Amino acid sequence: MKHMNSEVKEERTSNKKRIDLFLVPIVLIAAFLNLFKIWTDEYANAYYTAAVKSMLQSFHNFFYASFDPGGYVTIDKPPVVFWIQTISAKIFGFHGWSVILPQALAGIGSVLLLYVLVKRTFGVWAGRFAALAMALTPIVPAVSRTNNIDSMLVFTLLVATWMLFRAVRTAKFGWVLAAFAMIGVAFNMKMLQAYMVLPAFYVFYVVATKITWKKKIAFLTTATALMLAVSVSWAVVVDSTSADKRPYMGSSQTNSVLELAFGYNGINRLTGNTSVTGSSHKQPAQAQQQTASSETKQTSNSNAESSQSSNQSKSSSSKKMQAPGGGNQNGMFNTGNPGPFRLFQKGLSDQISWLLPFVIFSIVGLFAGVKFKGPYTTKQKESLFWLAWLLPVAVFFSIAGFFHQYYLIMLAPPIAAFAGAGAVALWSMYKQRNGWKSWLLPGGILTTAALQVYIMSPYVSSIGVAPIAGVGALGVILALVLAVRKERKNAVTNYLGVAAMVVLLAMPAYWAMTPIIYGGNSMLPAAGPDSSSGMGRPPSTATNSKQSGFNGMQPPGSSSGNSSSNNQMQPPSGSSNGGQMQMPGGSSNNGQMQPPSGSSNNSQMPNSSSSKSSSSKRKSGGMNAEVNKKLLNYLTKNNTGEKYLFATTDSTSAAPYIIETGKPVMAMGGFSGSDPILTVSKLKAMIKKGEVKYFYLSGMGKGGQSDVITWIKENSKEIPSSKWQSTSSSSQQGPSGNGTLYEITLK
Predict the structure, then answer these.
(1) 730-739 mean pLDDT
(2) CA dist., res. 707 & res. 723, Å (int)
(3) Of residues 700 and 733, which shows the higher confidence score?
């Protein structure tokens, strides 16, 4: 800590001569949190992993990011991240870890980039603290350990930030173009979410550059035009291609990338109108149940081993599982209720908000004495950049109608930057006895410790009282001692400052390790003692590790003999259902949750009938159920040259078979089963051409696919379950039953 008061220039000069040895353990920590045991996740996010399997098979599938090898429908996101994952799988072989690896490396890269960005202006200690805070922000490794997009998105935006800072320092227009073009690349990762940083880019460039207003406007206009051109480049190519020469654009209602970008993956996230039934009717955010996103669609097995399940509290098996947002849950998918304090609510605070009070105090210190008309120092200008990143994103998550917990990784860079820069600034004010500003450091420590106690309190049954009491007591003691010793300058005070930072980072560090300790979730990543559930809710409201989250899924054709009315989980049917919580692939029943396509009405593990619980590999999620070998053998044996192994309503049943076999499986309604892709006439033509003859159906029709499903049932031959089901002990029980296999041949 004593080095904090040295001049930034001296620190920069000295560190050019050698590697920063303090950075090495920080990078190793990030590498451990992001990489350790990713090789145990065999399927990762199966919806995306199936796409990589398909993209490996042809350039056509690669370019369009086709979900299935037959090129029937795409995934619901742009292709750039999946191009990278496919290249990784091509180099290292197709594995769960090879598609996760790019995101894990991006998570480590973000830590390094933040160090570089903060260190140059705020000093080496600020860079170190910022990098460590980024590495230990729980949601960062939780997301980076999966093949979801967000880790790569944040890394790309930090690269763009580095380019922008360089543009200001060098006064070269080329770097401005490069920075905004990189945002365009990020748009082709997760569409409008990439634009959340634009306020920071515009504000910083206007404030920080010393050129005329005329040039500022001209440069920013040109850079923005380039960004937009890069953003829509892939979309224009796809939308300009004849629909019969490319896959259907998954999760869109008009087979358009631009509609997907600005509707389903854009404004609808803010409004909560994420219905994909093809209807124009809009429902309130809390009543929107057809989330139709890969994050909600794909549900979770327990990814912890059986020995880890004892670490999670268990609720009575007689209790029905409440839908997120209902009962004692905290908002839809545990994302809290909209409002100014949403980021401090359970479900979100333990993912991202551990250091928010300290950040608020840091912002006060960094902007203290700043005049609106300037002039501004470099520190103030860059602080303004991070503030212009933090505030709009925080406001969005405070009011948005629909998002998932792991989207909060977008807040990690500015929070970490302020934590690092603020630690040095507040320490300097404290040591210099700078009036009221000297109280910001102990005040920040005290309030941050208090918030951390609040965050941990719902998890007392999992982590015990000791760490909660320890953080609270140490935070109070260190804050008070620092306040009392404010007039003294000696080594003891320095050590107290270091101890305070260690205390504030201790529990975020533990939370960041929970995906390793308890098992992670590749579909709905979240950190915490219940991280394998994918719900991020406190154990007091969760079931045991085999029943938490969106567990209970089974593969097509498998069944369990112990059907129960308790702990039921019901997915959505693709249509409105009175505001009840639904999962894509089935129907709703009184707010309970049932497994999607082809699963029995119980709360058992997806692979309960065929998997080995002691296996060193795990298939994390409802879509990641074990392939029903008996069904696969039947379909393979009876295939007479058809293009598709079988067709099913949505991607839940299709993904595992695509991953395991590499053969085309048709998800007739796309991701959630509600895309208006297929018509009866189109299906008849496909059958007559010999492209498909087997159909696996579970539940009633979904949205725009109901007519197709009705026609299939009326014109097909039902295959006896004894020929393809793993067991025959369960009878079919309507829309929530085990599903039925049909065969259709038309002359």
Answers:
(1) 43
(2) 27
(3) 700
